[in-house]
Design brief:
12-stranded antiparallel barrel, 1 helix, two-stranded antiparallel sheet, mainly beta, 15 strands, elongated, Porin
């Protein structure tokens, strides 16, 4: 019920903005390679950029469904370390805040609450309960982002980001993170007449496993279709979990737009279906 209320509130806000007769769509004169994304630096939110002095506020909702989530009973405090596949479903409400400190430096913060449920496999004869349901804080994390140079007609833009995840969850829990996690990423962006392409890759450290290893990687595409609409698509993965994520952005004004995305699992270990809906405010 809470998730339905969250969606309804965001849709009402969007409709109110859409019906506002004072909405302005003045267009900046930008070179071809910047027309899709503008002059801002990239954030962790799909196809979203922040300029110096901009404050981004993004309340959003995500739903997750996976009919064959990989798990081990050991992960939940039980003896069996064999791998099984169970049914997973979750509803999550989140808030993202980003701020452009300068035209090269930006910071982010994100937190959420989640309700998740796991139905164990019929082949799992361990002492794990047939159904696990938990609710509370999901990941609480932040990022520091640095842009090394500004894109030109010939030169792409390079950026780094450092991510941290706070240990807000209990050990052997279905939700949250039980230990510190850190990640260091590198990305490159280049705009063309047919769209803007971004590639990024990350090395991560998980405190509970005490090891550093390659983690998330992604290839992104962004295209400004008109003043109101932008199309985004991304192929994102972590090891053998790969997702395809298309998104439509509906810009009501220069400072408010609706983001509607859906993740589709490309590999069997990725989440089957993960839609996201929210409204981004740029103040």
């Amino acid at each position: 019920m809470k998730s339905k209320t969250f969606i309804a509130v965001m849709l009402l806000i969007g409709i109110a903005i859409l019906l506002n007769p004072n909405v302005s769509f003045s267009q900046e004169e930008l070179p071809v390679y910047l027309r899709d994304r503008g002059t801002g630096m990239p954030t962790s939110q799909f196809g979203t950029y922040v300029r110096k002095g901009d404050l981004l506020i993004y309340p959003f909702y995500e739903y997750y469904y996976d009919h064959n989530l990989e798990y081990e009973p050991f992960e939940f405090g039980h003896v069996d370390k064999r791998e099984f596949r169970g049914r997973y479903e979750a509803h999550e409400g989140l808030i993202f805040i980003g701020y452009g400190i300068s035209d090269r430096l930006a910071v982010e913060f994100e937190a959420g609450v989640i309700t998740a449920e796991l139905d164990k496999s019929d082949n799992d004869l361990s002492t794990l309960p047939a159904e696990i349901e938990e609710s509370g804080l999901s990941d609480v994390e932040g990022q520091i982002r640095w842009r090394w140079n500004h894109e030109s007609a010939r030169t792409p833009e390079f950026f780094n980001y450092f991510e941290y995840v706070l240990p807000t969850g209990e050990k052997n829990s279905l939700i949250g993170t039980s230990d510190w996690e850190f990640a260091l990423g590198l990305g490159v962006i280049k705009g063309f007449r047919w769209g803007t392409v971004t590639f990024r890759a990350t090395v991560g450290y998980a405190g509970d496993e005490n090891k550093v290893e390659p983690s998330e990687y992604a290839l992104e595409y962004l295209k400004r279709v008109s003043n109101r609409f932008r199309f985004f698509a991304m192929l994102e993965g972590t090891e053998d979990e790969v997702e395809l994520i298309p998104e439509i952005q509906w810009h009501f004004s220069r400072s408010v737009f609706l983001k509607a995305a859906t993740g589709f699992g490309v590999t069997s270990k990725a989440t089957d279906f993960a839609p996201e809906l929210g409204i981004m405010f740029s103040l």
